[in-house]
């Protein structure tokens, strides 16, 4: 029982995912600090020095609970985009490269797709002989569309 668990934990994929998650958490902290301490002050300054941020006060002036803070939302969008770019360029691209050198294809683009004439689902592989959703027989040849 313990030997099977050890083999499961020591698989290369699990170690790769664990390292990727650790790197992602560390980068998340850095990017959060960047958006909180660089982007947010710039957005606040662009609106004016006396404002709580980029947004509108919906209630009593000075009440943070009724302040519609678009600056924080914009900061969160920037955070998300930076984080996804970091994950893609520092985790996904190197992983694809290493796996390609090992002869394995990961994160490949989907092949040509076709539409089922019975249920109109659009995600059937072009070579499918039965629909994944309604189990109807598919014509062997037909117009294929690419995703």
From TrEMBL:
Molecular function (Gene Ontology), one example: mechanosensitive monoatomic ion channel activity
Pfam family, one: MscL
GO cellular component terms attached to this protein's record: membrane
Subcellular locations according to the entry: Membrane
Top-level taxon: Bacteria
UniProt keywords, alphabetically: Membrane, Transmembrane, Transmembrane helix
Name of the protein: Large conductance mechanosensitive channel
